[in-house]
Write a structure and sequence with these properties.
The protein is of the alpha/beta class. It has 12 helices and 11 strands. The protein is elongated.
Length: 335
């Protein structure tokens, strides 16, 4: 009697040169894969004498009491507070949490996703700028793995999500800045590749319009959410002769860099230049000039994300939910 190893979906995927998710879609007749690729997958499955593993399917229905979290970098100040909320909420319900960091690299996200599936997580939380495609999200749904997005809306792809209202937050901070001092305002927003940044920009623009002003790209310096980008943008702006006005930054880290550049130019905050941030990271209240900022309910977003995931466990057929939380304007000495 021969002792042969059971053929798996991964074996078929490797020989076909496609993802395991693509093989799963074809074998479960879910569609979404080209006819040519589908025929190749089916031919390889037949050649390898593939048989669906009914035991594995039944195991999928059992709970492992584990939630997977995919994050950009769990050490970042914003994400660390979100993840603390996730872990506290999960622990209160008897769940363990597995965290994978992507560091903004698409290949890392794909690897993390496949690893989470292999670990048979009960549910998945994305706490990072998501590069996973809609087909992959649909496949997670087919595999019975509920998914929740944090810090961005999942409405367009029918995925549960918990986020803060970036549009209102952007509007309120610019409205405050223009209501308290009518001067030249410049913007250091998050790069346009980030959905959160675009939502805040829409709020900035409407606030400007309500104050009789127009959005002018020549007054905008797009930044990545780093101290270095904020410092560089502010140093360049000061070199152009900008020595009195307001700078609205897309996040606190950008604002911290901007503050350093202003101080090195021997200008005073807020007498000469006012600076605002966004997020209210813990450091913002301990700067040489405490930072005016928009506080996001980061911990609550993480905590509520787990609660929404558990609700999906118990009611898998409910319509997708998009929970949007309010921010809070925190006024400090930088404005």
């Amino acid at each position: 009697m021969t002792n042969s190893k059971r053929v798996t979906i991964k074996d078929i995927a490797k020989e076909a040169g496609v993802s395991a998710m693509a093989v799963s879609r074809v074998l479960s007749n879910k569609g979404g894969i080209s006819q040519e690729t589908s025929e190749r997958i089916l031919a390889i499955a037949k050649k390898l004498n593939y048989r669906p593993n009914s035991i594995a399917r039944s195991l999928r229905k059992q709970r492992t009491k584990t939630i997977g979290v995919i994050a950009s970098d769990s050490s970042e100040l914003v994400f660390s507070q979100i993840l603390r909320g996730v872990q506290d909420s999960a622990s209160a319900e008897g769940y363990d949490v597995i965290i994978a960091n992507t560091y903004q690299i698409p290949e890392n996200e794909k690897h993390a996703l496949n690893t989470m599936i292999d670990r048979r997580i009960d549910g998945l939380i994305f706490a990072a700028p998501m590069r996973t495609g809609k087909s992959d999200l649909e496949e997670l749904k087919h595999l019975g793995i509920p998914t929740v997005l944090l810090m961005r809306s999942g409405g367009l792809v029918g995925i549960d999500s918990v986020s803060a209202d970036n549009y209102i937050g952007g509007y309120e901070i610019v409205d405050y800045l223009l209501s308290t001092r009518d001067d030249d305002i410049r913007f250091f927003p998050l790069s346009q590749s980030r959905s959160t940044g675009l939502e805040r920009i829409a709020g900035y623009q409407n606030a400007l319009s309500d104050h009789g002003r127009n959005w002018n790209e020549r007054r905008v310096y797009y930044c990545e959410p780093t101290i270095n980008d904020g410092y560089s943008a502010m140093a360049k702006l000061v070199q152009t002769g900008f020595k009195h006005g307001t700078v609205c930054c897309g996040c606190d880290l950008i604002a911290i860099g901007a503050i350093k550049a202003v101080q090195e130019a021997n200008l005073k905050i807020p007498e000469d230049i006012r600076i605002s941030g966004y997020d209210d990271i813990e450091l913002s209240d301990y700067l040489s000039v405490p930072l005016t900022t928009m506080r996001q309910p980061k911990y609550d977003i993480g905590y509520e994300g787990v609660r929404l995931l558990l609700e999906r466990f118990n009611n898998p057929d409910m319509c997708s939910k998009q929970i949007v939380m309010r921010n809070e304007l925190i006024i400090r000495k930088s404005t």
